[in-house]
Specification:
The chain contains one helix and nine strands, in the order αβββββββββ. By secondary structure, the chain is α+β, with helices and mostly antiparallel strands. The chain has two domains: 7-41; 46-161, Immunoglobulin-like (Sandwich). The radius of gyration is 28 Å and the shape is elongated. The relative contact order is 0.21.
Length: 163
């Protein structure tokens, strides 16, 4: 008894091909939308350009001061709302001063080792700021970690060795 082989009808084959093509087109559209969103979205990105430490004396007292240069290489303004120093005991009594640009005055500078949401240390895209942190207590050769915390919740760490 001969067996008759039958394939699927041309109508069913056409329907399947059209359904597969539509599914692939939808997947490509979602993928492209995600890629375009990545390139056109606003991105927060700080870059710690340099961090150096100096021992300075002011009259009878002296201490280490850390100078940090921060640049906003992202596409949206970034507000620095906190600075963390590790080990924490090195930062007791330290303060933050903006050195450059000189026109930038900060009414409530970022607090050390706590997040100060009231800070207005805002860096525009392409802008940079130089801050002075200190006095820091420590010994020559000690490593101090400085973390810059942004209002967006990101942290930008930098390690500094006291001279």
């Amino acid at each position: 008894m001969p067996m008759r082989r039958r394939g699927i009808s041309p109508v069913i084959a056409t329907v399947i091909l059209v359904a597969v093509a539509i599914a692939v087109a939808i997947a490509v559209a979602f993928w492209m939308t995600g890629m375009v969103g990545l390139f056109t979205g606003r991105v927060e990105q700080l870059e710690v350009v340099s961090a150096t430490a100096k021992y300075e004396t002011d009259g009878e007292t002296g201490g280490y001061y850390i100078y940090v240069v921060i640049r906003n290489s992202g596409t949206s303004p970034v507000t620095i709302d906190g600075i963390f120093i590790t080990p924490e005991d090195a930062a007791q009594g330290a303060s933050v001063d903006v050195i450059e640009p000189e026109y930038l005055t900060v009414s409530s500078p970022p607090e050390i080792n706590s997040v100060n949401t009231g800070s207005d240390l805002k860096i525009e895209p392409g802008g940079s700021v130089k801050i002075k942190i200190g006095p820091i207590s420590g010994n020559a050769g000690q490593s101090i970690e400085v973390k810059i915390h942004s209002a967006g919740g990101k942290e930008y760490p930098k390690m500094v060795v006291l001279p």
